[in-house]
Specification:
This protein is α/β, with parallel strands linked by helices. The chain contains nine helices and six strands, in the order ααβαβαββββααααα. α2 runs parallel beside α3. The radius of gyration is 20 Å and the shape is globular.
Length: 198
């Protein structure tokens, strides 16, 4: 087989996974629940790839995150059509809503707009001495709490971008609280009402 460059060897599997150039064969062997596209190589997630993902899990996550849209690994229309509407889809580029079997799916755009402004501001406003992994976990939990049942039902996994400012403030407050609870906030005294302070 091909020789991996030295900088990739630490990330290579050594558990007996067979060598393959076939994404379908790999999916059938590993049985993942999520498929992320980060190649920028264009349409690589073919019908057989999506069908293999659906055989692997009931609600596969299909995330073609490459930009621009022409470089996305799959379109929203094909992802919903080939998964018969069962996939959870978010892309790095915007896609129009998709109608399939009498239902309208609204593809999410998976980017950092909802996390990083609030995370950065929340850490800064309390003088956090470092950015901890827990900040990202709490930011993600806060973000998830703003996705409505209606949005989830339409296939979205992010809140509406029109709520960006409100969600970013809530994320910032949650990150600030996390900084205090983990002992890395330096603003003293701690504001009595962190959400209002933020």
């Amino acid at each position: 087989g091909d020789e991996l460059p030295a900088h990739n060897r630490d990330f290579a599997r050594a558990d007996g996974t067979p060598d393959t150039d076939s994404l379908v064969d790999l999916i059938n062997y590993v049985r993942p629940h999520a498929l992320f596209g980060l190649s920028g190589a264009g349409p690589l997630f073919t019908r057989d790839v999506i069908e293999a993902m659906c055989a692997s899990t009931m609600r596969p996550l299909i995330f073609p995150l490459s930009n621009p849209t022409s470089k996305a690994e799959i379109t929203a229309e094909n992802a919903y059509k080939w998964s018969n509407g069962t996939c959870i889809f978010a892309a790095g580029s915007p896609f129009d809503p998709v109608k399939h079997n009498g239902r309208t799916y609204v593809p999410g755009q998976g980017n950092n707009a909802f996390i990083f402004p609030g995370l950065g501001f929340g850490a800064w406003v309390v003088g956090a001495t470092e950015i901890l992994d827990d900040f990202f976990v709490e930011a993600a939990r806060e973000l998830a709490s703003h996705v409505t049942a209606e949005e989830l039902d339409s296939g979205k996994i992010y809140p509406s971008i029109s709520n960006l400012r409100e969600v970013s403030c809530k994320v910032a407050a949650r990150v600030a609280e996390c900084a205090y609870s983990m002992g890395v906030a330096t603003r003293d005294p701690k504001p009595s009402d962190l959400p209002s302070f933020v």
